[in-house]
Automatic annotation (TrEMBL):
Region described as Disordered: 349-400, 432-452
Origin species: Rhadina sibilatrix
One GO MF term attached to the UniProt entry: carboxypeptidase activity
Protein name: CBPC1 carboxypeptidase
Alphabetical keyword list: Carboxypeptidase, Hydrolase, Protease
Gene name in the database record: Agtpbp1_0
Amino acid sequence: SSRTIALLSQLEKINLDSVVGESDHARYVTSKILHLVQSQEKTRKEMTSKGSTGIEVILSTLEVKFSNFCGYRFIAALHFMVMKCGGRRASVLVTKGGTQILLQLLLTASKDSPPNEELMVLLHTLLAKIGPKDKKIGMKARINGALNISLNLVKHNLQNHRLVLPCLQVLRVYSTNSVNAVSLGKNGVVELMFKIIGPFSKRNTSLMKVALDTLAALLKSKTNARRAVDRGYVQVLLTIYVDWHRHDSRHRYMLIRKGVLQCIKSVTNIKLGRKAFIDANGMKILYNTSQECLAVRTLDPLVNTSSLIMRKCFPKNRLPLPTIKSAFHFQLPVIPSSGPVAQLYNLPPDVDDVVDESDDNDDGETESEIETETDDDKDQHFKNDDIETDIDKLKPRQELGRPIEELKMYEHFFPELLEDFQEWDLVSKEPKPFVPDTNLSGPIVVPTASVE
Protein backbone atom coordinates (compact mmCIF):
# COMPACT_ATOMS: atom_id res chain seq x y z
CA SER A 1 0.00 0.00 0.00
CA SER A 2 2.94 2.38 0.59
CA ARG A 3 5.24 3.95 -1.95
CA THR A 4 8.18 1.85 -0.76
CA ILE A 5 6.34 -1.45 -1.24
CA ALA A 6 5.30 -0.39 -4.73
CA LEU A 7 8.88 0.43 -5.68
CA LEU A 8 10.13 -2.90 -4.31
CA SER A 9 7.46 -4.72 -6.33
CA GLN A 10 8.62 -2.96 -9.48
CA LEU A 11 12.20 -3.87 -8.62
CA GLU A 12 11.25 -7.55 -8.31
CA LYS A 13 9.68 -7.43 -11.78
CA ILE A 14 12.85 -5.86 -13.15
CA ASN A 15 14.90 -8.70 -11.62
CA LEU A 16 12.73 -11.25 -13.42
CA ASP A 17 13.28 -9.48 -16.74
CA SER A 18 15.69 -11.36 -19.00
CA VAL A 19 17.12 -8.15 -20.47
CA VAL A 20 20.75 -7.73 -19.42
CA GLY A 21 21.87 -4.24 -18.54
CA GLU A 22 20.28 -1.14 -17.10
CA SER A 23 17.05 0.26 -18.49
CA ASP A 24 15.59 3.69 -17.91
CA HIS A 25 12.90 2.23 -15.70
CA ALA A 26 15.52 0.44 -13.53
CA ARG A 27 17.48 3.68 -13.26
CA TYR A 28 14.34 5.52 -12.10
CA VAL A 29 13.37 2.87 -9.51
CA THR A 30 16.85 2.64 -8.00
CA SER A 31 17.18 6.43 -7.81
CA LYS A 32 13.79 6.74 -6.14
CA ILE A 33 14.56 4.03 -3.56
CA LEU A 34 17.88 5.67 -2.69
CA HIS A 35 16.18 9.06 -2.32
CA LEU A 36 13.48 7.67 -0.01
CA VAL A 37 16.00 5.81 2.14
CA GLN A 38 18.18 8.89 2.58
CA SER A 39 15.35 11.35 3.19
CA GLN A 40 12.67 9.46 5.15
CA GLU A 41 13.16 7.58 8.38
CA LYS A 42 9.80 5.88 7.85
CA THR A 43 11.14 4.26 4.68
CA ARG A 44 14.26 3.00 6.44
CA LYS A 45 12.20 1.44 9.23
CA GLU A 46 9.81 -0.09 6.73
CA MET A 47 12.59 -1.71 4.71
CA THR A 48 14.43 -3.04 7.75
CA SER A 49 11.45 -4.03 9.89
CA LYS A 50 10.83 -7.62 10.88
CA GLY A 51 9.13 -9.55 8.09
CA SER A 52 10.09 -7.04 5.41
CA THR A 53 11.75 -8.29 2.22
CA GLY A 54 13.35 -4.95 1.34
CA ILE A 55 16.95 -6.00 2.01
CA GLU A 56 16.43 -9.34 0.26
CA VAL A 57 15.12 -7.62 -2.87
CA ILE A 58 18.07 -5.20 -2.93
CA LEU A 59 20.59 -8.03 -2.48
CA SER A 60 18.96 -10.12 -5.20
CA THR A 61 19.10 -7.07 -7.48
CA LEU A 62 22.82 -6.69 -6.81
CA GLU A 63 23.31 -10.33 -7.82
CA VAL A 64 21.78 -9.57 -11.23
CA LYS A 65 24.83 -7.35 -11.86
CA PHE A 66 23.43 -4.12 -13.11
CA SER A 67 25.82 -1.40 -14.23
CA ASN A 68 27.84 0.57 -11.70
CA PHE A 69 25.16 3.23 -11.46
CA CYS A 70 22.47 0.93 -10.09
CA GLY A 71 24.98 -1.00 -8.01
CA TYR A 72 26.33 2.18 -6.48
CA ARG A 73 22.83 3.40 -5.56
CA PHE A 74 21.86 0.16 -3.85
CA ILE A 75 25.15 -0.10 -2.00
CA ALA A 76 24.68 3.50 -0.88
CA ALA A 77 21.17 2.64 0.29
CA LEU A 78 22.43 -0.37 2.27
CA HIS A 79 25.24 1.70 3.73
CA PHE A 80 22.81 4.42 4.81
CA MET A 81 20.45 1.93 6.43
CA VAL A 82 23.22 0.14 8.32
CA MET A 83 24.79 3.38 9.53
CA LYS A 84 21.50 4.93 10.62
CA CYS A 85 19.75 1.85 11.99
CA GLY A 86 22.65 0.46 14.01
CA GLY A 87 24.33 -2.93 14.39
CA ARG A 88 21.10 -4.90 14.50
CA ARG A 89 20.52 -4.18 10.82
CA ALA A 90 24.08 -5.23 10.07
CA SER A 91 23.27 -8.62 11.56
CA VAL A 92 20.16 -8.84 9.35
CA LEU A 93 22.29 -8.07 6.31
CA VAL A 94 24.70 -10.87 7.26
CA THR A 95 21.94 -13.43 7.78
CA LYS A 96 20.52 -12.61 4.33
CA GLY A 97 23.85 -13.47 2.66
CA GLY A 98 25.00 -9.89 2.20
CA THR A 99 28.65 -10.62 2.97
CA GLN A 100 29.04 -13.03 0.07
CA ILE A 101 27.33 -10.64 -2.37
CA LEU A 102 29.40 -7.63 -1.28
CA LEU A 103 32.66 -9.58 -1.61
CA GLN A 104 31.66 -10.68 -5.09
CA LEU A 105 30.84 -7.08 -6.02
CA LEU A 106 34.20 -5.99 -4.63
CA LEU A 107 35.95 -8.54 -6.81
CA THR A 108 33.99 -7.42 -9.87
CA ALA A 109 34.57 -3.71 -9.24
CA SER A 110 38.31 -4.24 -8.76
CA LYS A 111 38.64 -5.44 -12.37
CA ASP A 112 37.85 -1.97 -13.69
CA SER A 113 40.85 0.14 -14.60
CA PRO A 114 40.98 2.38 -12.69
CA PRO A 115 38.45 1.14 -10.11
CA ASN A 116 35.60 3.43 -9.10
CA GLU A 117 36.84 5.18 -5.97
CA GLU A 118 33.38 6.07 -4.63
CA LEU A 119 32.20 2.51 -5.09
CA MET A 120 35.31 1.13 -3.36
CA VAL A 121 34.89 3.47 -0.40
CA LEU A 122 31.24 2.43 0.04
CA LEU A 123 31.97 -1.29 -0.31
CA HIS A 124 34.84 -1.24 2.19
CA THR A 125 32.93 0.90 4.67
CA LEU A 126 29.98 -1.48 4.51
CA LEU A 127 32.20 -4.57 4.83
CA ALA A 128 34.02 -3.05 7.81
CA LYS A 129 30.66 -2.40 9.47
CA ILE A 130 29.17 -5.87 8.96
CA GLY A 131 32.48 -7.77 9.24
CA PRO A 132 32.46 -8.17 13.05
CA LYS A 133 28.95 -9.63 12.79
CA ASP A 134 30.10 -12.38 10.40
CA LYS A 135 32.53 -14.85 11.95
CA LYS A 136 33.25 -16.44 8.55
CA ILE A 137 34.09 -13.25 6.66
CA GLY A 138 37.83 -14.00 6.65
CA MET A 139 37.31 -17.44 5.12
CA LYS A 140 34.76 -16.07 2.61
CA ALA A 141 37.15 -13.33 1.50
CA ARG A 142 39.97 -15.83 1.01
CA ILE A 143 37.79 -18.24 -0.98
CA ASN A 144 36.41 -15.47 -3.21
CA GLY A 145 39.89 -14.12 -3.92
CA ALA A 146 39.06 -10.74 -2.38
CA LEU A 147 41.73 -10.92 0.30
CA ASN A 148 44.42 -8.92 -1.50
CA ILE A 149 42.12 -6.36 -3.13
CA SER A 150 42.10 -4.11 -0.08
CA LEU A 151 45.86 -4.57 0.37
CA ASN A 152 46.58 -3.55 -3.23
CA LEU A 153 44.36 -0.49 -2.89
CA VAL A 154 46.33 0.61 0.17
CA LYS A 155 49.66 0.04 -1.61
CA HIS A 156 48.70 2.21 -4.57
CA ASN A 157 46.80 4.93 -2.68
CA LEU A 158 48.90 5.67 0.41
CA GLN A 159 48.24 9.41 0.10
CA ASN A 160 44.50 9.01 -0.44
CA HIS A 161 43.44 8.77 3.20
CA ARG A 162 39.74 8.77 2.34
CA LEU A 163 40.18 5.42 0.55
CA VAL A 164 42.93 3.98 2.76
CA LEU A 165 40.96 4.30 6.00
CA PRO A 166 38.05 1.94 5.11
CA CYS A 167 40.51 -0.46 3.45
CA LEU A 168 42.52 -0.66 6.67
CA GLN A 169 39.32 -1.27 8.62
CA VAL A 170 38.56 -4.24 6.38
CA LEU A 171 42.14 -5.53 6.72
CA ARG A 172 41.74 -5.33 10.48
CA VAL A 173 38.69 -7.59 10.23
CA TYR A 174 40.51 -10.01 7.90
CA SER A 175 43.56 -10.19 10.21
CA THR A 176 41.61 -11.73 13.06
CA ASN A 177 41.83 -14.99 11.08
CA SER A 178 45.26 -16.58 11.59
CA VAL A 179 45.42 -18.06 8.07
CA ASN A 180 44.61 -14.67 6.54
CA ALA A 181 47.22 -12.98 8.74
CA VAL A 182 49.94 -15.31 7.44
CA SER A 183 48.82 -14.85 3.84
CA LEU A 184 48.74 -11.05 4.14
CA GLY A 185 52.12 -11.07 5.87
CA LYS A 186 53.70 -12.89 2.93
CA ASN A 187 52.41 -10.13 0.65
CA GLY A 188 54.17 -7.38 2.62
CA VAL A 189 51.36 -6.06 4.81
CA VAL A 190 53.62 -5.73 7.89
CA GLU A 191 56.08 -3.49 6.05
CA LEU A 192 53.15 -1.49 4.67
CA MET A 193 51.72 -0.84 8.14
CA PHE A 194 55.04 0.61 9.32
CA LYS A 195 55.00 3.01 6.36
CA ILE A 196 51.62 4.28 7.53
CA ILE A 197 52.26 4.66 11.26
CA GLY A 198 55.61 6.37 10.65
CA PRO A 199 57.06 8.95 13.07
CA PHE A 200 55.08 11.22 15.38
CA SER A 201 52.46 13.34 13.63
CA LYS A 202 49.10 14.68 14.78
CA ARG A 203 47.72 14.54 11.24
CA ASN A 204 45.35 11.69 10.40
CA THR A 205 45.39 10.22 13.90
CA SER A 206 42.28 8.15 13.13
CA LEU A 207 44.15 6.48 10.26
CA MET A 208 47.12 5.73 12.50
CA LYS A 209 44.86 4.26 15.20
CA VAL A 210 43.30 1.82 12.73
CA ALA A 211 46.74 0.96 11.30
CA LEU A 212 48.07 0.16 14.79
CA ASP A 213 45.07 -2.04 15.57
CA THR A 214 45.58 -3.88 12.28
CA LEU A 215 49.29 -4.31 12.96
CA ALA A 216 48.63 -5.65 16.46
CA ALA A 217 46.25 -8.25 15.00
CA LEU A 218 48.78 -9.23 12.33
CA LEU A 219 51.65 -9.60 14.81
CA LYS A 220 49.70 -12.20 16.78
CA SER A 221 50.81 -14.55 14.02
CA LYS A 222 54.22 -15.97 14.92
CA THR A 223 55.32 -15.84 11.30
CA ASN A 224 54.58 -12.12 11.07
CA ALA A 225 56.17 -11.54 14.48
CA ARG A 226 59.41 -13.19 13.33
CA ARG A 227 59.33 -11.08 10.17
CA ALA A 228 58.97 -7.93 12.25
CA VAL A 229 61.85 -8.94 14.53
CA ASP A 230 64.14 -9.77 11.59
CA ARG A 231 63.56 -6.31 10.11
CA GLY A 232 64.27 -4.49 13.38
CA TYR A 233 60.74 -3.23 13.89
CA VAL A 234 60.83 -3.80 17.68
CA GLN A 235 63.23 -0.88 18.01
CA VAL A 236 61.01 1.16 15.69
CA LEU A 237 57.94 0.50 17.86
CA LEU A 238 59.79 1.57 21.00
CA THR A 239 60.98 4.76 19.29
CA ILE A 240 57.45 5.57 18.15
CA TYR A 241 56.11 5.00 21.66
CA VAL A 242 58.73 7.29 23.22
CA ASP A 243 57.95 10.01 20.64
CA TRP A 244 54.25 9.92 21.42
CA HIS A 245 54.97 9.84 25.15
CA ARG A 246 57.07 13.00 24.91
CA HIS A 247 54.81 14.99 22.60
CA ASP A 248 51.42 13.99 24.00
CA SER A 249 51.72 16.18 27.09
CA ARG A 250 47.97 16.67 27.42
CA HIS A 251 47.24 12.94 27.02
CA ARG A 252 44.76 13.38 24.17
CA TYR A 253 46.10 10.46 22.14
CA MET A 254 46.16 7.76 24.77
CA LEU A 255 44.52 5.26 22.38
CA ILE A 256 47.38 5.63 19.89
CA ARG A 257 49.97 5.09 22.62
CA LYS A 258 48.06 2.03 23.79
CA GLY A 259 47.93 0.77 20.18
CA VAL A 260 51.74 0.91 20.01
CA LEU A 261 51.96 -1.04 23.27
CA GLN A 262 49.55 -3.65 21.90
CA CYS A 263 51.88 -4.14 18.92
CA ILE A 264 54.83 -4.61 21.28
CA LYS A 265 52.78 -7.01 23.37
CA SER A 266 51.94 -9.09 20.28
CA VAL A 267 55.49 -9.26 18.97
CA THR A 268 56.87 -10.29 22.38
CA ASN A 269 54.74 -13.44 22.40
CA ILE A 270 57.67 -15.22 20.78
CA LYS A 271 61.12 -15.77 22.27
CA LEU A 272 62.88 -13.82 19.50
CA GLY A 273 60.61 -10.86 20.14
CA ARG A 274 61.37 -10.87 23.86
CA LYS A 275 65.10 -11.03 23.18
CA ALA A 276 64.86 -8.16 20.69
CA PHE A 277 62.84 -6.18 23.24
CA ILE A 278 65.51 -6.63 25.92
CA ASP A 279 68.34 -5.87 23.48
CA ALA A 280 66.58 -2.63 22.48
CA ASN A 281 66.55 -1.53 26.14
CA GLY A 282 62.79 -1.93 26.22
CA MET A 283 62.64 -2.76 29.94
CA LYS A 284 64.16 0.58 30.89
CA ILE A 285 62.04 2.51 28.38
CA LEU A 286 58.72 1.07 29.53
CA TYR A 287 59.70 1.33 33.20
CA ASN A 288 60.60 5.02 32.93
CA THR A 289 57.54 5.93 30.89
CA SER A 290 55.29 4.01 33.29
CA GLN A 291 56.73 5.91 36.24
CA GLU A 292 55.84 9.18 34.55
CA CYS A 293 52.29 7.95 33.84
CA LEU A 294 51.51 6.93 37.42
CA ALA A 295 50.38 10.43 38.43
CA VAL A 296 47.63 10.52 35.77
CA ARG A 297 44.68 8.28 36.49
CA THR A 298 43.48 8.11 32.88
CA LEU A 299 46.80 6.56 31.82
CA ASP A 300 46.31 3.41 33.91
CA PRO A 301 45.73 1.29 30.75
CA LEU A 302 49.22 2.26 29.55
CA VAL A 303 50.77 1.33 32.88
CA ASN A 304 48.91 -1.99 33.01
CA THR A 305 49.91 -2.96 29.45
CA SER A 306 53.52 -1.92 30.08
CA SER A 307 53.57 -4.02 33.25
CA LEU A 308 52.31 -7.07 31.36
CA ILE A 309 55.01 -6.65 28.72
CA MET A 310 57.79 -6.23 31.30
CA ARG A 311 56.63 -9.22 33.34
CA LYS A 312 56.51 -11.33 30.19
CA CYS A 313 59.97 -10.28 29.00
CA PHE A 314 61.79 -10.36 32.32
CA PRO A 315 64.29 -13.27 32.46
CA LYS A 316 62.88 -16.35 34.17
CA ASN A 317 64.89 -18.39 36.67
CA ARG A 318 64.23 -21.40 38.84
CA LEU A 319 63.49 -21.15 42.55
CA PRO A 320 65.35 -20.93 44.81
CA LEU A 321 67.79 -18.62 43.04
CA PRO A 322 71.38 -19.75 43.77
CA THR A 323 72.76 -16.61 42.08
CA ILE A 324 73.47 -13.01 42.94
CA LYS A 325 70.09 -12.02 41.43
CA SER A 326 68.34 -13.27 44.55
CA ALA A 327 68.22 -11.41 47.86
CA PHE A 328 67.74 -14.73 49.68
CA HIS A 329 69.59 -17.99 49.31
CA PHE A 330 68.08 -21.18 50.64
CA GLN A 331 68.08 -24.83 49.80
CA LEU A 332 65.22 -27.18 49.10
CA PRO A 333 64.55 -29.67 51.94
CA VAL A 334 64.97 -32.71 49.71
CA ILE A 335 66.97 -32.73 46.49
CA PRO A 336 67.30 -36.12 44.79
CA SER A 337 70.77 -37.25 43.96
CA SER A 338 69.88 -37.87 40.32
CA GLY A 339 67.21 -36.90 37.85
CA PRO A 340 66.14 -33.72 36.03
CA VAL A 341 65.88 -31.64 39.23
CA ALA A 342 69.43 -32.49 40.22
CA GLN A 343 70.63 -31.68 36.70
CA LEU A 344 69.04 -28.24 36.91
CA TYR A 345 70.73 -27.43 40.20
CA ASN A 346 74.08 -28.57 38.89
CA LEU A 347 73.98 -26.09 36.01
CA PRO A 348 76.22 -22.99 36.18
CA PRO A 349 74.46 -19.75 37.21
CA ASP A 350 74.62 -18.06 33.80
CA VAL A 351 72.79 -20.86 31.96
CA ASP A 352 69.12 -20.29 31.05
CA ASP A 353 67.37 -23.20 32.71
CA VAL A 354 63.77 -22.27 31.91
CA VAL A 355 62.30 -24.11 28.94
CA ASP A 356 60.61 -21.69 26.51
CA GLU A 357 58.21 -23.50 24.19
CA SER A 358 56.55 -20.39 22.75
CA ASP A 359 58.26 -20.79 19.38
CA ASP A 360 57.65 -24.51 18.97
CA ASN A 361 54.22 -24.22 17.31
CA ASP A 362 54.13 -22.62 13.89
CA ASP A 363 51.23 -21.17 11.95
CA GLY A 364 50.85 -24.32 9.88
CA GLU A 365 47.31 -25.06 10.94
CA THR A 366 44.64 -24.45 8.40
CA GLU A 367 41.42 -22.74 9.28
CA SER A 368 39.37 -25.87 8.78
CA GLU A 369 41.53 -27.80 11.22
CA ILE A 370 41.22 -25.05 13.81
CA GLU A 371 37.44 -24.96 13.45
CA THR A 372 37.22 -28.76 13.67
CA GLU A 373 39.28 -28.82 16.84
CA THR A 374 37.12 -26.08 18.35
CA ASP A 375 33.91 -27.95 17.58
CA ASP A 376 35.31 -31.20 18.94
CA ASP A 377 36.35 -29.52 22.18
CA LYS A 378 32.82 -28.26 22.66
CA ASP A 379 31.15 -31.59 21.99
CA GLN A 380 33.51 -34.03 23.68
CA HIS A 381 35.58 -34.17 26.83
CA PHE A 382 38.82 -35.98 26.16
CA LYS A 383 40.68 -37.82 28.87
CA ASN A 384 44.22 -36.66 29.43
CA ASP A 385 46.36 -39.78 29.49
CA ASP A 386 49.45 -37.85 30.54
CA ILE A 387 48.14 -37.22 34.06
CA GLU A 388 49.61 -39.57 36.65
CA THR A 389 46.94 -41.16 38.86
CA ASP A 390 49.09 -43.46 41.02
CA ILE A 391 49.33 -41.84 44.45
CA ASP A 392 52.43 -43.86 45.38
CA LYS A 393 54.30 -42.48 42.39
CA LEU A 394 53.21 -38.92 43.10
CA LYS A 395 54.48 -39.01 46.69
CA PRO A 396 58.12 -37.93 46.91
CA ARG A 397 60.47 -40.38 48.55
CA GLN A 398 62.02 -38.61 51.50
CA GLU A 399 65.09 -40.00 53.13
CA LEU A 400 65.59 -39.62 56.88
CA GLY A 401 68.40 -37.41 58.01
CA ARG A 402 69.46 -39.96 60.72
CA PRO A 403 69.24 -43.74 60.90
CA ILE A 404 66.41 -45.31 62.92
CA GLU A 405 68.84 -46.68 65.56
CA GLU A 406 69.82 -43.15 66.60
CA LEU A 407 66.18 -42.08 66.87
CA LYS A 408 65.32 -44.80 69.45
CA MET A 409 66.87 -42.68 72.21
CA TYR A 410 63.82 -40.41 72.01
CA GLU A 411 61.24 -43.16 72.60
CA HIS A 412 60.69 -42.35 76.28
CA PHE A 413 59.65 -38.82 75.35
CA PHE A 414 56.73 -40.11 73.25
CA PRO A 415 55.27 -43.20 74.99
CA GLU A 416 51.85 -42.70 73.35
CA LEU A 417 53.39 -43.69 70.05
CA LEU A 418 54.51 -47.05 71.44
CA GLU A 419 51.75 -48.17 73.86
CA ASP A 420 48.87 -50.26 72.54
CA PHE A 421 45.75 -48.72 74.08
CA GLN A 422 42.79 -51.15 73.98
CA GLU A 423 39.49 -51.49 75.81
CA TRP A 424 39.59 -54.33 78.41
CA ASP A 425 36.74 -56.59 79.40
CA LEU A 426 36.37 -56.38 83.16
CA VAL A 427 34.95 -59.95 83.36
CA SER A 428 37.39 -61.91 81.23
CA LYS A 429 40.34 -59.56 81.90
CA GLU A 430 41.16 -59.65 78.16
CA PRO A 431 41.09 -57.00 75.43
CA LYS A 432 37.62 -56.47 74.09
CA PRO A 433 37.28 -56.46 70.27
CA PHE A 434 36.11 -53.14 68.88
CA VAL A 435 32.56 -53.24 67.46
CA PRO A 436 31.30 -49.97 65.91
CA ASP A 437 27.87 -48.81 66.99
CA THR A 438 25.61 -48.65 63.94
CA ASN A 439 22.67 -47.18 65.85
CA LEU A 440 24.10 -43.68 65.93
CA SER A 441 20.72 -41.97 65.72
CA GLY A 442 19.29 -43.65 68.85
CA PRO A 443 19.98 -42.94 72.50
CA ILE A 444 23.35 -43.71 74.03
CA VAL A 445 23.32 -46.96 76.00
CA VAL A 446 25.89 -47.43 78.73
CA PRO A 447 26.54 -51.17 79.38
CA THR A 448 26.88 -52.42 82.94
CA ALA A 449 29.38 -55.10 83.95
CA SER A 450 29.26 -57.29 87.04
CA VAL A 451 32.40 -57.59 89.01
CA GLU A 452 33.01 -60.84 90.85
